[in-house]
Structure prediction request, 255 residues.
Amino acid sequence: MGLIPARVGLVGFAIGVSPIRLRSASVDCMETWNVVVWNDEVNLAAYVAYVFRRVLGMSRTEATEAMLDIHRRGSATVISGTREHSELNSFRLQVHGLLATLERA
Amino acid sequence: MSEPFAPCAGGVRMTLANWEVELLSLVPALLDSVGKYEPDPAAVRLDLHTYPDDAAADAEFRRLLANELEHGRAADRSAFSLTVEAGADGVVLSTAEAEAWLRVLTEARLVQSARAGLPGGFSSESDQALFDYLSWLQGSLVEILDEVLP
Prediction:
């Protein structure tokens, strides 16, 4: 598997919480991974949109559209990037209680 | 119910009624109970699930980050516990504290709903009342933070 050792990334764990370091065994910088967020019946729509704004830096409009897309389709890719970055983004979303998984683009 | 949150310089002003403080004092015990018995669907819901099609990668991701996740949750709960009682007299939450509240409220709602099966499936009126209140409170806080966020 390719989870983060060789390179060490400094990441904010969650808003206002101390940073963490992730390590990865092997990182394929050319490969793109999608962070997929799944619809759930519990998290409030406004909260999900807020987390997208705060964690992923989306605009209010982008965050609302992403939230609605997930609600309508059951899941949606909210951001893509290297495996390392996608793991970090997935982690930060999960810290906020969202169902966020990874898949190869 | 009066509005519990209002934007102010330095963050969010929180003012809670005594009954709200009393209700919210149930939250730390609720969260502390996660994983204390098995099977606990709440523990499963709060765990990291990152690679649905790769069990080894999923386990490795969890192994590397489980401690960090718990550390962050403990910090959030601490921020929550340190400020909840002061809410009865009115207290200003920093943005970081307010966001810790958001995560604690989320966690509590996820724990309740995971154990109940689905929202609306609560076995007692008190559980339902707590869930409804936490939902309302979180919605109120998100609304204020959303205004504050540039």
